[in-house]
Design brief:
single chain; mainly alpha
Length: 134
Amino acid sequence: MSNITSFQQRLEQSRAAKGGQRAAEQQHWDTLVARVDEPVVARMIVSFFDHAPTEKLKQPGLYLRAKLVLSDSFASEATRAKQANRAVVRTVSEYLGAAGYFFYRCVRLPFRAVRDLAAIARRRRPVNRPLFHH
C-alpha cells in the first residue's frame, strides 16, 4: 500500500470521526483550539492526546501546535530561570566582595597601629607621617 493511499484512508477516518462529534463536545474543542496559545491549555491538550493516541490522529495539527507552544514556553521559562540564577550569583558575589573589603579594612587598621607604635618605640617615626594614619 502506498503512502498516498494510507494517508487518504487516515484522512477519511479523521473526517468521519469529526463528523460524529456531538455539538457540545465540538463547542469545548473550539474553546480549546481558540486558547491553544496559552501554555496551561496547551499542556492539557498534549496530555490528553498523549493518553489517547487515536484522538491524536483526529486532530494532528492541534497536537503539533500545542507541542510548539509548550516548547516555546519551556524555552522562555529556561531563559527566565537562567536570568534569575545569574541575578542570585551576582548578588552573592557583591555581598562577598563587600564582606571581604570590610574584613580587609578591619584587619588593616590594627596592623597599621602596631606598626606605628613599634616605630614610636624605636624612635624611627618619620616626622611628616601622622600617627595612626588611615
